[in-house]
């Protein structure tokens, strides 16, 4: 990715879909942004070209004066802009043609088509935001739930960067104390090892606390995949329809109605959930149904959580037992459906199943209990939902893990009574890792990897 900041870049900053957008924005940033705007935009009357003022007018071809679009133009002069450079936005009529024509005119006037994330990259390189805030911007755009959006906004406000920077500064202070004793041992009082131990332990505990939010972050960003499995005609499709409040799946009294995996996306407790209604798992001679059953097994294997659904009127059957044998190694909730039709008070099922929910999907009963059980499984199962307002991503978790290892090695070095020179090696490793999280110490390859995931125009 190019890091040349002298060039003026341009990109379409809004999603453009034919006949589905009322406004399309073309964004310019760089030294010649204002000059390009003045060649393309005609603001009638006595409108003043001032920063943070919206002008009304027409975009014309600078040579032929052909009218391209009637538009609004927003000026944001450096440093009071997203990139801390001069920024111009043309707010055009939505649709493909107007914005593409304006984009092409800007390129003809010397602007370079922006690469993915290049506007945000310039904001980072110009010191407007740190690296955690830049990543939070991408996460806001891709958020699948309000909870994910709130966590991303917290990152944008610096709630992750601030503790990381404080930890790094503490490590820098410790390093300075240690190096001072190495260079000027005779001129300074002895090093307070107990104080150093206490400071390192406090840093390590805080690093561990922040690391614990990684699973929460992954859950909020990518969501949870849940597969509804069971034998035919136990009410899996009715359960999906009641849960999603829509008729996503065909519901009949005939077993084997669902022939393929049907997906629905929900948000439960702020967590995006992809629900898979699978074909009933059974032995069948029907070729099409065989394919559906195989896809059901694959969906169950890839799911984070299984809702093993049985028919309360039939109880636990041998067919249920066979299905359970295939999925019991996965996190699982037993859903006892059709309880409104059942006469038996007690249903026997394997004692190792610890979480059960009773539903009557056809009457929309038991859905809230099901959601509560799912959220409880998230908290107590393989994925831990930390009750924090920050949640680190995979890159940050990997880097913070390196910092944790380095800090533990410093403690081991101290406990082994090794010379002070050895302390500094791992201290520098921790400082560098913490700096990589906020971008105070980062390589070009890391920046390329981060910003290449952004959309063009952001």
Layout of strands and helices, then pairs:
Blueprint lengths: L8 E4 L10 E7 L3 H8 E2 L10 E8 L6 E10 L10 E7 L2 H13 L3 E2 L4 H8 L5 H12 L3 H11 L4 H23 L9 H19 L2 H9 L1 E6 L6 H9 L17 E7 L2 E7 L9 H16 L2 E7 L6 H10 L4 E6 L18 E3 L8 H14 L13 H22 L4 H19 L5 H8 L7
Parallel strand pairs: 1-7, 8-10, 8-11, 11-12, 12-13
Antiparallel strand pairs: 1-2, 2-6, 3-4, 4-5, 5-6, 9-10
Helix pairs in contact: 4-5, 6-7, 6-14, 7-13, 13-14
Textual characterization of the structure:
The chain has 458 residues and is of the alpha/beta class. 44% of the residues lie in helices and 17% in strands. It is built from 15 helices and 13 strands. The protein has a seven-stranded mixed sheet with strand order 3-4-5-6-2-1-7. A six-stranded mixed sheet has the order 9-10-8-11-12-13, sandwiched between helices. α4 runs antiparallel to α5 (146-156), α7 runs antiparallel to α13 (394-415) and α13 (394-415) packs antiparallel against α14. The protein is flat, with a radius of gyration of 29 Å.
- SSE sequence, one letter per element: EEHEEEEHEHHHHHHEHEEHEHEEHHHH
Main sheet makeup: 7 strands, mixed
Query: Level of helix content?
Result: 40-55%
Please state the overall shape, judged from the principal axes of the Cα atoms: flat
Mean of the pLDDT scores? 84
- In terms of DSSP E residues, the strand content is 15-25%
Coarse structural class: alpha/beta
The parts where pLDDT drops under 50 for at least 5 residues are 248-260, 281-290, 382-388
- The count of β-strands is 13
Gyration radius (Cα, Å) is 29 Å
Number of helices: 15
Assembly of the depicted chains: single chain
Main-sheet strand order equals 3-4-5-6-2-1-7
Give the distance, in angstroms, between the N- and C-terminal Cα atoms: 15 Å
